[in-house]
Amino acid sequence: MKKLYPIGIQSFEKLRKENYLYIDKTSFVYELVKSGSYYFLSRPRRFGKSLLLSTFEAYFQGKKELFQGLAVEKMEKDWIQYPILHLDLNTQKYDSPESLDNILNMKLDEWESLYGSNPVEIGAPLRFLGIVRRAAEQSGRRVVILIDEYDKPMLQAIGNEELQDSYRDTLKAFYSVLKTMDKYIQFAFLTGVTKFGKVSVFSDLNNLKDISMDKRYTELCGITNEEIHHYLETDLHILADTQGMSYEETCQELKECYDGYHFTFDSAGIYNPFSLLNTFDSMSFGNYWFETGTPSHLVKLLKRDNYDLHQLANDKATSDTLNSIDSSSKNPVPVIYQSGYLTIKDYDKRFGIYYLGFPNREVEEGFIKYLVPFYTSIDEGKTAFYITEFVHDVEEGNYEDFFIRLQSLFADTPYELIRDLELHYQNVLFIVSKLLGFYVQAEYHTSDGRIDLTVQTDKYIYVMEFKFDGSAEEALQQIEEKRYILPFAKDNRKIVKVGVNFSSKTRNIEKWLVKEVE
Hints:
The protein is of the alpha/beta class. It is built from 22 helices and 13 strands. The strands form three sheets. The chain has a five-stranded parallel sheet, sandwiched between helices. Strands 9-10-11-12-13 form a five-stranded mixed sheet, sandwiched between helices. A hairpin with a 3-residue loop joins β10 (about 450-455) and β11 (about 460-470). The protein is globular. The N and C termini lie far apart (about 65 Å). About 40% of the residues are buried. The model has no long low-confidence stretch (mean pLDDT about 90).
């Protein structure tokens, strides 16, 4: 019988009753319930947050039968049923103040049909407060509150300050009930992609324990390498056979594609569960997670803040920066990190600095390809064609065609879209180098005004120096003077030196000079 993979299954009860694969996280559920009352967890989309809340819901409903054979079955003795208020903000498109009001009112109406209403309770916060009190009084037990994707309205309003202010004011008042009604609340758990702090939604919720970077709970969502081999060992062998790969090659490919998420320093790598389960279900590798959601709001932030894309590969941040987003901030890094497009690569304990980078190949390749139409004149549907042609050019030594094609990337770029022409030029070069790097060995460097690109193929080594409002002759001379080709002196491949100048007047590559090393 084919194993059932819980792709898109967010109901713990459905998953257990219909025999879907479940990777047991219930020991974490029990520990959280017994050690605290108010929690917040930030994780990227499709990382299992909704299923986690559904697991809490089943636990607090006292549905012991659903936990048969799981860790918590041996840990919990009482299985008490509590009144539960479960709000999911992931089901709505938020494009007006009314869109948030509508979903809150719909949920409040549903709860009031169970626990009654009071005509003096006007507005969502007062209605929510009254529901919590009546639910506790009528049941004789304190209330459990579960809120999924608490930040969805705020995220969708990035770039629209007026709308974001409206959502912030509404949610700030609504969530304040979690603090003011403490004596009626047994347990509360909020999930989201980001944490809006400082003067935003979380400013008053100082009773919430943020476990997003807590080392004890890094494995709460997502799948570890150990869990893959425990639950999916047979599947690994089937995947290897289907793909015509060895078992070792298959494990390595899974790791490179989907592993690499670190939510704190010195922790086990976490695999993206959505991509991993889709891979086993279809028995083929693919960009499953990236293709289910486009990071358009992140690109808006990158362009709004004039971000140097080169930093994506090696950016730095403090824990305060990563852990909280100010809705008025001009730093896009926290949102990119919390959305799952960057992750923690290293940590400098002395200075408290985290080093960030792409978690895996799926994210890096998907994100870079997605950037192309936003930074160049290439239409979205033609990205793959351009990549193919670029790779063929460098592999076959067609450097003239390569630079003619590169010129076309800068052509027809609207003047008003570029606030910093030199940075735009560097960003396009970075994108090109990353695209090449997925298929050949390519490295792009910038330091002290120097820009160079080294591309290595089976036959050629290209050492390129780029100038901005200089000259191609000057760029070629720098390669000579700085002896950039020295590391390749004993290499048998043909070495090609290339000097390139970009002109701010023509807003494009003005000239390139090529010299092959004999």
